[in-house]
UniProtKB/TrEMBL annotation:
GO molecular function list: hydrolase activity; zinc ion binding
Annotated protein name in UniProt: CMP/dCMP-type deaminase domain-containing protein
Residue span, CMP/dCMP-type deaminase domain: 40-169
Entry keywords, A to Z: Metal-binding, Signal, Zinc
Endpoints of the signal sequence: 1-23
Keyword Metal-binding attached: yes
Domain of life, per lineage: Bacteria
Keyword Signal attributed: yes
The organism of origin for this protein: Listeria grandensis FSL F6-0971
Length: 448
């Protein structure tokens, strides 16, 4: 079957995205200039992502872009990084690839999109852990990468062997699908041999990137990295945060919080980072919702630095397989902060502090699989950088992968996630044994 992606199809996809309940109505102009023609060769494909890189740079977010194309050579969808817009963090998980995969799942049926094995993902920058997990979950035919990222990229050591994924089936899957095409250049900095799996045969003999295009994908990202990091690093220090339970019930922060999460502020842990069994009913209720939403009965609670329950989320995997409870928790919290700031509520982040001061508690611990990898990666993106070391920001109740397995996996992730002076994405069993027992007894056991 031949798919011809005309402008009208792409524009209707944009309107679906703009109307999405998750993304709200602020992303209505992100890629409407993508009027696809057929792609002829790797240079052509990477050039298309470079166009998205420019739009990301113009928006003031990390300069990364990507595209989904079908194995007949047609552009299906283009997207760029949307972590920052209006000089605010819009969504720490809004990397190009993660958004494209959500879009793919959300629209696969209604737009009659090709099956994953007939989709090629092209990206200007090596995928991070979150996006790699998302990509491996989707199972696309080929992943074509332009620039390297030696800090957060899954191919951080440039070996195309993916040691972070060793001991899992994900490693073989990445080795069989990720391509780092040759770069044809006369300089050492902007040329390379091809590594990874050979690119899809649909690219014919045109299997290399020209050095100017490669340089743009590489240098544009480098140029925005520090700028954007500084711009979004404006949160108040922890000792200036205020307890949202002191808010009047008519305060816009209170109103927005309760509208988004009706259980917000109904529970407060006896000590901020150590919830007790009183949290269990909220996690169990959300886990039941998670099963109804196509998940395996997990849930994530977010406590603030005062121990208050801010939200508890189910996943939404019937809509998109990568919408795990944690992904929706971190996206939901960012959206709350973003919308309040856009509405001019200047003290919003004084009551809803940076997520590095919060505690995320899973009902059931992550597994070492693509969704677990995506969650570990999203935790890194949420934290953005070094985190307070006097607490465990990331906890679970019922164990699935063992603590030793989770620790070894976290230690092997790219430097951004595993260096001592960086994010440190470790997840630990929660300390309160009564909470664990209540979850073990009460969580739904339905198997997907
Ligand atoms: Zn990413």
């Amino acid at each position: 079957m031949k798919f011809t992606w005309k402008k009208g199809v792409i524009l209707s996809a944009v309107s679906i995205l703009a109307g999405s309940a998750i993304l709200g109505n602020v992303l209505n102009d992100v890629h409407v200039d993508a009027v696809p023609t057929a792609i002829n060769g790797i240079q052509d494909a990477v050039h298309e992502t470079a166009d998205q890189v420019l739009h990301a740079s113009d928006q003031g977010t990390f300069s990364v872009g990507g595209m989904l194309m079908d194995t007949d050579g047609n552009v299906v969808y283009t997207q760029h990084n949307n972590v920052v817009t209006n000089d605010l963090v819009f969504d720490p998980t809004a990397h190009g690839e993660r958004q494209m995969i959500d879009w793919y799942y959300e629209n696969k049926e209604s737009l009659d999109l090709p099956e994953p094995e007939k989709i090629i993902l092209v990206t200007s920058l090596d995928p991070c852990a979150m996006c790699t997990g998302s990509i491996l979950q989707a199972g696309f035919a080929n992943v074509v990468v332009s620039a390297n990222d030696t800090y957060a990229g899954i191919n951080y050591d440039k070996s195309a062997l993916f040691p972070s994924l060793s001991g899992t089936s994900m490693q073989a899957d990445a080795q069989a699908s990720f391509s780092y095409p040759a770069v044809l250049g006369s300089t050492a900095k902007f040329s390379r041999e091809a590594t990874g799996v050979p690119v899809s045969p649909i690219f014919g003999d045109n299997t290399a990137i020209e050095d100017q295009t490669y340089a743009l994908t590489s240098t544009a990202f480098d140029a925005t990295l520090n700028d954007v990091s500084n711009k979004i690093n404006t949160d108040l220090p922890e000792d200036q945060l205020l307890d949202p339970k002191m808010l009047a019930t008519t305060d816009p922060i209170y109103v927005a919080l309760k509208a988004a999460y009706p259980h917000a502020l109904e529970y407060t842990a006896p000590s901020p980072n150590n919830p007790d069994e009183g949290l269990a009913p909220y996690l169990i209720e959300a886990a039941e919702q998670d099963i109804a939403n196509g998940g395996d009965g997990n849930a994530v609670a977010l406590l603030d630095r005062f121990g208050n329950l801010i939200m508890v989320t189910a996943g939404n995997q019937a809509v998109s397989e990568i919408q795990t409870p944690f992904m929706l928790a971190t996206r939901g919290y960012a959206k709350l902060r973003y919308n309040l700031q856009m509405d001019g509520v200047s003290n919003a982040t004084q009551y809803l502090g940076h997520p590095k001061y919060n505690t995320f508690i899973y009902a059931k611990g992550p597994e070492i699989n693509p969704q677990g990898l995506a969650d570990f990666g999203a935790f890194g993106s949420t934290m953005e950088g070094a985190i307070p070391t006097d607490r465990t920001q990331f906890q679970y109740g019922v164990e699935r992968a063992t603590q030793a397995e989770l620790d070894a996996f976290a230690d092997g992730l790219p430097p951004f996630y595993s260096d001592d002076d960086s994010v440190n994405v470790h997840i630990k069993e929660t300390a309160n044994q009564d909470l664990i027992a209540a979850l073990a007894a009460g969580l739904p056991t339905t198997i997907k």
